[in-house]
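seq:
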Amino acid sequence: MQENFRIKRHEVEKSDESYFQGVKDCIPTLLGYLSIGFAAGVVGKTSGLSIAEITLLSLLVYAGSAQFIFAGMIAANGSATAIIFTIFFVNLRHLLLSAALSPYFRHLTPFKNILIGSLLTDETFGVAMNQTANKKSISEKWMHGLNITAYLNWIIANIAGAFFGQWIKDPHKLGLDFALPAMFIGLLVLLMVSRAKIAVDVVVAISAVVIVVGVTWLSSASVGVILATIMASSIGMVVEKWK
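struct:
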């Protein structure tokens, strides 16, 4: 009987690490992807991009913040150099996201890590971090299920937004430009609730806001976000270790 229990438990653990379990765990974020992707498609269309260009952006860039920036700078006739460097600095946070998850994929080859990292987003990172509780590694199949589901959903949402965007002349009136920060706020709240470390998280959040505001006065907002991410997370680590 005890042996049967161990076998059933092993089967449950295996099912929790399967590709389709990754797809299932991605479902709660799909509504956010649909709204943000749709908004990105609409903003891109109203900025003068074609449906083909928006589709190509979603396929190759696959970053909500980058695509919003791209559309805005295109509308403002920004230079290619300025667009490239701005998007590069804004998306430097992905180095931190990948670094935080990398210990859980040490058992994989560099090529397999590249496949996982290339589709990693803020949202899939948040889901994956919840998966890391009491685990030393994350299933490769589970991560692919999570990443690919999010990726395909993002592409579909972008194309839909690009198609319907031709009838939406001013997306700012509908608040579509606020869709991205709204989703980030929602993810942050859900992560804080699941961690049950409100005091530490509040300290980190306040520190991040103060650092962003302070650095933005002296430099650009992009630099402020990067420094706030590094410094606030370091402060949170120190506070948690001290407690």
